[in-house]
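Dear Dr. H.,

I hope your travels went smoothly. While you were away I took the liberty of generating a structure for the chain from your last submission, since the lab meeting agenda had it listed for discussion. I wanted you to have the full record in hand beforehand rather than looking at slides cold. The sequence, exactly as received, is reproduced here:
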Amino acid sequence: MKVLLVSSAGGHLTQLLSLRSWWEEHERLWVTADMTDARSLLAGERVVWCNYPTTRNVPNMWRNFRLALRTLAAEQPDVVISTGAGVAPPFFLAAKLRRVRTVFLEVYDRLDTTTLAGRLCYPLADRFLLQWDEQKKLYPKGIVVGRAL
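The corresponding predicted structure, in token form, is as follows:
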């Protein structure tokens, strides 16, 4: 299976990295911001650097949407998986347009309110995964899978 792993750097990337026992068995490509931590953590991995900043930056959202269209056409992944944040919605929209399956894992530290990326990706996600039972009231169609970290 070809997997496209999409996230912001920092904690969002850390949550995707924690799923190593699953993704290490698959052909994969990462999409994240070109930051020192991401370069270090993804050394040896195939990476496409997104336009940063991603959150609430409309010009970079459009740049990342174009990047998503190019990346999906070139790589033809079977699934796009993300933990957010701002880089996720453009990639999920592009994946939907190309009929590529999508999986979103909502972050573990938001129990009372939704995240912006979660709100935008929820209607686009084929599977919307939650880390806490409490998140189910925010995302009724979500599937509680437990904590990633």
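Two observations you may find useful: The beta strands are 2-7, 27-33, 47-50, 79-84, 101-105, 127-130, 143-144. The domain at 2-144 is CATH 3.40.50.2000 (Rossmann fold).

With kind regards,
E. W.
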